[in-house]
Design a protein that fits this description.
Layout lengths: L3 H17 L3 H21 L2 H33 L1 H22 L2 H14 L3 H37 L5 H7 L3 H17 L4 H25 L7 H26 L12 H28 L2 H38 L2 H28 L1 H6 L9 H17 L2 H7 L3 H26 L1 H25 L10
Helix pairs in contact: 1-2, 2-12, 3-4, 3-9, 3-12, 3-13, 4-6, 4-7, 4-8, 4-11, 4-12, 5-6, 5-8, 5-12, 6-7, 6-8, 8-9, 8-10, 9-10, 11-12, 11-17, 12-13, 12-15, 12-16, 12-18, 13-15, 15-18, 16-18, 17-18
Length: 469
């Protein structure tokens, strides 16, 4: 049975295109049934491919996380915990602004373009991508300039850390480059591509930074700490250029758009509000540690967070890979397939993430000691963070699932509650507990966020799709 809730807009669009082309009733029926067959078939028969995509995507994400781990290890071993803290504050500042710049247009793009490609509406898919990329570029340029111009005043007068200014300034291009990379990769994932976008998003640009830092350490008598942000930006430029070339090849094979498609800014802003809140919470915790304690402790805490990102990558990778499947299932009204996708991601993810989590829980001092003896003070924080990430993986991609059901407001409300409570607890515990208090705050935020999102996916009815502008 075909659900009229999703089929009516699709039918209308196909009929309009067919009559406009002069095909008449017979042609419109053919277009209609062809679109229905392709969309429903991709939902019904996608489970095996989903599993394969999750595994391939996870492997590449794991490689990317391993590269980030090695890069952080090199910075820690070459320059110490204080430089790690300064670099991570600069990078977190840049990624916060980048999250605002992308405005979750990558998610909106997947949700909108995937069904268009499945029904062979390639001209509209091309127009949507081009408009989205243009909007992201404009906003990214503006925010990158803003970040660079405020870097030194913020470091000197707000943080009382003048040495922080160069790190924020040198990493400001990330505010533009990272959103462009995500938009291009979202388009490629909508095409069913896995290897290229996952390789570009983390593996390639961090690998370039690692090789460059090794070369600097070998060739320079005294390696400069500021070489780390410069090399990361250089690697990201290479990734964006390659992504542009790959996406252009696909676009050039499609019909050239005859009109400009509007960008769903309102929908993107609604979706982006939640990750912006999350990123703001992580940024504020890092600033609070630096203010209450010092940049060295911020570096210790950030290394504990990076270790747990080896588990977080499972959830983020699965959410990224499952996005198109969830979009198709939500569009087709396939509730059973929708929930099955979430359960597959959560179950497989927990099995994969458990070894890393158990090691972090059992021997946290040894894990952090790999970066240097001064990092072992974050052992308890690492254990709290590990518990939070294991629960995060078990819940599955429930946040992206709600978004694919057009329930951005629910995600925003949950994220706001979880972040505020977690941040408040972290700041309250910092003076007595140190970085362990920050870890406990993030654990509480994870428990609140995933419990509520999971409940809404299973027990609350999704909202009807609305047109956003």
């Amino acid at each position: 049975m075909i659900d009229k809730g999703w089929s009516a807009p699709l039918f209308s669009g196909l009929l309009d295109r067919s009559f406009a082309a002069g095909h008449g009733p017979t042609g419109s029926r053919w277009q209609y049934w062809r679109g229905v067959f392709r969309l429903t078939s991709s939902v019904k028969l996608g489970t095996k491919k989903l599993t394969a995509d999750l595994i391939v995507g996870l492997a590449l994400r794991a490689l990317g996380a391993a590269c980030s781990f090695v890069f952080a290890w090199l910075i820690a071993r070459y320059f110490g915990a204080r430089v790690v803290g300064l670099y991570q504050i600069g990078y977190t500042t840049a990624t916060l602004l980048a999250t605002v710049a992308v405005l979750s247009m990558d998610i909106v793009l997947v949700r909108k373009v995937t069904p268009l490609i499945a029904t062979e509406q390639l001209e509209e898919a091309s127009a949507t991508f081009r408009s989205t990329r243009r909007f992201t570029f404009t906003l990214g340029i503006a925010l990158a300039c803003l970040g660079a111009s405020l870097a030194f005043p913020f470091a000197t007068f707000v943080m009382d850390e003048p040495e922080l200014g160069p790190y924020i300034a040198l990493l400001s291009p990330v505010v533009l480059l990272l959103p462009l990379l995500r938009i291009q990769n979202a388009f490629l994932r909508s095409l069913g591509k896995v290897i290229v976008p996952q390789s570009l998003e983390g593996v390639l640009y961090v690998s370039i930074a690692i090789v460059g830092l090794f070369a600097v350490a070998i060739l320079a008598s005294e390696p400069q700490p500021l070489s780390a942000p410069v090399l990361l930006v250089a690697g990201m430029i290479v990734s964006v250029v390659i992504g542009f070339i790959v996406t252009s090849r696909h676009l050039n094979a499609w019909p050239k758009p005859r009109r400009i498609t509007g960008v769903e800014k309102r929908s993107g802003a609604a979706i982006a509000a939640a990750p912006v809140i999350t990123q703001s919470g992580n940024w504020l915790i890092l600033l609070a540690i630096t203010t209450v304690m010092n940049a060295t402790d911020a570096g210790v805490f950030r290394i504990a967070v990076l270790v747990c990102m080896l588990m977080e990558l499972v959830n983020t990778s699965f959410a990224t890979m499952a996005g198109p499947y969830l979009a198709r299932a939500a569009k087709a009204g396939e509730t059973g397939q929708f929930r099955k996708t979430i359960m597959i991601a959560g179950t497989v993810g927990l099995v994969i993430a458990s070894p890393v989590g158990l090691i972090a829980l059992a021997v946290p001092e040894w894990v952090l000691g790999l970066f240097g003896p001064e990092f072992t003070s974050g052992a308890l924080a690492l254990q709290f963070l590990a518990v939070g990430q294991l629960f995060n993986v078990l819940a599955g991609p429930v946040g992206i699932a709600l978004i694919m059901q057009n329930r951005e407001r629910t995600v925003l409300q949950v994220e706001g509650l979880a972040t505020v409570l977690g941040l408040a607890l972290a700041v309250w515990l910092l003076p007595a507990w140190g970085v362990a208090g920050a870890g406990l705050g993030l654990l509480v935020a994870s428990l609140i966020r995933n419990s509520l999102n999971w409940s809404f996916v299973w027990f609350a009815r999704p909202q009807p799709e609305t047109v956003s502008s």
